[in-house]
Amino acid sequence: MSSYGMTRARTVGAIAQAVTEAGGSLGRLFGRAGMPLTLLDTPDRLILLRDQLALVAAALREIGDPALPARLSMQTGIVGLGPIGAQVRSAETLGAALHRVEVVTPLLLQTATWTGQRRQGDDAFYGYGITERIERGRQANEVLALGYLLGTVRHFLGPAWRPERAVVTGATLAGRAEIEACLGCTVSFGPRAGLAFPARHLDAANPSRLDPTELSPAETKPIGEDLPACVCHLIELGLDEARPLIDAVARRLGLSRRTLQRRLEQAGTGFADLRRDVTRRRAEALLSTSTQSIGRIAIDLGYSDPAHFTRAFLEWTGATPSQWRRSVHAEADARSRR
Asked: Domain HTH araC/xylS-type spans what residues (predicted)?
């Protein structure tokens, strides 16, 4: 198992919108976090958990609103969590929903985290924790998570429900009064973030249950979290801005170039192989779905000229980009006439 947590980029759009509405700069926001603006168009893209934390921390710095994470998650609600929201809305009771969230969150939405409930007598604690060793933005991400936890419980108990208290890690919390006002309860400190409430609420029935058979395949597709899969996701991000290089990917993972090479070799692959596979998939997608010229696609994929891209694509597929595009379009036309 990889020690590098991955998460879907679902919160990126809401963060960007809040920063824009507050008069902040998106270029500065994403620049500080080292993230491409193209993430705004791809909410199901996988990114490093540490990069999401960095983006939340950059947003706080950009607009100076300590309660921003809680407001964002509360406004977005569990529907904004995609697969997890669907799992919650299809559960029969609150207790069943929290058990399901504990099982599926690291599989479908966010690895290197724990989300679930613990019961002690008459009390229940619905918690969230980051298992990867990350410090930058950790507490702000916990406040973001508290809003989603609150939205989950309110789906069963109503929009006016308030927990007995919220908990974050650490010893101090910037903007504590503003965050408490947003959550509607006091915030204390403990070993794990979460919400405390009476355990009897766990039996609350789902007032508007989603039919489990309506879950789409995208809502049940696991996140690949081994190192090669993680590197592939980072290469995907790199293709949004320039031809991704191994040194840049290694730095993002906090590894040396040689360490990354050695670990990929142990996994039976190499950086060049992964970059080729990712680039090929992106090239095929662009040729299939866009009307961009071959030259434009070559530049977008980081090639210095179309000839280099054509030679690489011919080696991958046995066809030139133009031949491949014509073949795909011809197959699509044939299917539409059937």
From this structure: 229-327
Residue 215 lies in a domain: yes
d(CA 7, CA 130): 12
Task: Using alpha carbons only, give the angle 131, 137, 139 rounded to the nearest 5 degrees.
Answer: 70
Q: Residue 137's domain spans which residues? A: 65-219
Token pair listed for 275: 């970059």
**19-30: per-residue pLDDT in tens?**
999 999 999 999
Let me know if residue 192 belongs to a domain.
Answer: yes
| Pairing state between β 165-168 and 123-130 | unpaired
Tens-digit pLDDT profile for residues 29-80: 999 988 889 889 888 888 988 888 889 999 999 999 999 999 989 988 887 7
Position 283 in a domain: yes
Neighbouring CB atoms inside 10 A of 218's CB total 11
Are 200 and 71 within one domain?
yes
Q: What's the rounded Cα separation, in Å, for the pair 197 and 267?
A: 45
